[in-house]
Amino acid sequence: MFKQAFKRYKIKTESPDLQDVIDLDQYEAINFDSGCHNPAIVPEIQISPSLRVPVGLQSPNDWRCYTLANHPGLLVIRNPFTPTGQRYWIARSLRDYPQAPNYVNLDAKHFSVNAVSNWWGELHQSGHKTVDQRLKTAMRWTTLGYHHNWDTKVYDEAKHTTFPSDLSSLCQYFSLVLGYQHFIPQAAIVNYYPIGTTLSGHTDHSELNLAAPLFSLSFGQTAIFLIGGMTLEEQPTALYLRSGDVLVMSEKSRLCYHAVPRVMKTHKKSWNGNSKEMHEDPFNTSMDSELYDQVKDEDFWMPFEGYINDSRININVRQVLPSDVSQIHI
Ligand SMILES: O=C(O)CCC(=O)C(=O)O
Ligand SMILES: [Fe+2]
């Protein structure tokens, strides 16, 4: 069931039938227009009044948060970011996160040492369009914090670097707003999806702590995301994940099969536009405030725009260890 659905959306030669793909924006419009109660909207998010909103996010009072009736534990916060906030995370994911000592999929056999250690810096050096294009599309993932070993599917205490504190604060904020008191971001995979690339069906079960939620941030072009059940036999649900969307896999959905069969061009560039900065007293001091200012400048932003115009970025954040454990014991 899962594999058939994956193939149906992936199909390249013709455009797939998108009728069954859940569009949270449409869904809300239809239900509000007809005045009926929307069962997919999580009725209320409990927000602690003492929590200060990080820079680059809208007030949680303005968030729209959805859950799917047949996938308990799956939540989507529909783009809680401001345009500048999106630009900041896009720039961090491209310029900074792929830098050594973080791990990337690029290897020294096929790419220069500089490209492996500083992909974005290297990308604009060659002066050749085809060389740049090859390097641009070759980047598929970087790992942060505990680095997942894709072959053995284990995390290893020896392969551990500092988790970026800005991303940690952001995800901790999301987790607190949603009522998870003890979430500690310890590992992240940043996935890069040039249009035409996919991620096939899998479950994420390598973490020692499978009770903790998983936070998945989407930026750039739109994904069709498939969420299924605990086995590949169950029929998955398809939904659009758009730029800025925050997907949370918790409880029953934490170990469900999921995939990205397609990345589609969007005409709504929600990372462009005026950010209504709503508070003067931003709390996320771990953010790179220089970068936050720079991304507002169109000249500085241009190369990032060039990348995100035909790619999607996903930042996938997990807690690896049980809350009372400080390292992986071998
Ligand atoms: O790109 C996505 O939305 C999902 C990525 C994912 O499932 C993963 O990194 O494990
Ligand atoms: Fe996954």
TrEMBL record:
Keyword annotations for this protein, in alphabetical order, are: Dioxygenase, Iron, Metal-binding, Oxidoreductase
Q: Which Pfam families match?
A: 2OG-FeII_Oxy_2
Write out the GO cellular component annotations: cytoplasm; nucleus
Required cofactor(s): Fe(2+)
The positions annotated for binding Fe cation are H202, D204, H258
Q: Which GO terms describe its molecular function?
A: broad specificity oxidative DNA demethylase activity; ferrous iron binding; oxidative RNA demethylase activity
Record's protein name: GH12171
